[in-house]
Amino acid sequence: MRYLVVCALFALSCGKTNSKPVYLGFSADSSGIVIKNIDRNGLYQLQRDTQALDSMALIDVVETPAADDSLTMEKTVTGRLHLRGDSLLFLPDTPFTRGKTYLVQTFVNSRFAAGGDVLRGKLQPRVKPVAVTLRR
C-alpha cells in the first residue's frame, strides 16, 4: 500500500511543469514566425531530427480574409522550418503581406495528458493546438 501511495505522489508531482507557454509571434523583421519556449524533451527531438523538420507538420499558417471581405478564401501559407538555437523559425515561401491577418497553430509542447491528469480523470478527447492570430 505504501508503494502505491509513493507512486501516486510521484505521478502527481511529475504532472505539472513550470515551463512557460509556447510563444508564437513574428520575427523582429516580420519575415518569419518564431516559436519559442519549447520544452527540453521537444527541443531534443527536434535537434535529433533536423533534416525532417518540414515533413513533421509542426506549424500551420493560414492567411485569413478580412472581416469585411466575403470573396476571399483562406489560404494556407507554405514555407520551411529552421531550428535556431532553442526556437523554431518558420520562413514562408512568399513574404507575409502587410495588413493581412494570419492564423498560426502548432502542436509543439502539446500533450494528451500528464501523469496527474490521468490519475485525476481529466483526460481530453484530443490534443489541442496552441493557436494565435497575428497581424502583419
UniProtKB/TrEMBL annotation:
It comes from the Bacteria. This is Lipoprotein. It comes from Pedobacter yulinensis.
